[in-house]
Amino acid sequence: MNKDQVKGTAEKLKGKVNEAVGRATDNPQRELKGDMQQAAGQARKNVGDLKEAAKDVTKRHH
């Protein structure tokens, strides 16, 4: 696991919390912020996943 995967997962978790709090307190702005954080977190995690996959491919070909 690399730092992009860890930070992406953490950002997704923060987004889920903000979304839930926004929904519970009827705060659409906070809910939207949570949705955006989750999307950004997933994107960063995807970058980390690609880096890990590239490392695995490189290791197999050496």
Topology (SSEs and partners):
Layout: H1 3-24, H2 28-60
Helix pairs in contact: 1-2
Number of helices: 2
N/C terminus separation: 21 Å
Q: What is the count of structural domains?
A: 1
Task: Give me the strand/helix succession.
Answer: HH
CA-based gyration radius: 15 Å
Please identify the structural class as seen in this structure.
mainly alpha
The amount of beta strand, in percent, is under 5%
Q: What is the helical fraction, as a range of percent?
A: over 70%
Low-confidence stretches: none
Describe the global form.
rod-shaped
The largest pleated sheet is described as: none
Overall strand count = 0
Overall pLDDT, averaged? 96
Q: What would you say this structure looks like, in words?
A:
The protein has 62 residues and is mainly α. It has one domain (3-60). The chain is 89% helix and 0% strand. It contains two helices and no strands. The longest helix has 33 residues, at 28-60. It is rod-shaped. The two termini are 21 Å apart. Residues 1-62 are annotated as: Disordered. Residues 4-56 form the CsbD-like domain. Belongs to the UPF0337 (CsbD) family. Residues 1-17, 46-62 have a biased composition (Basic and acidic residues).
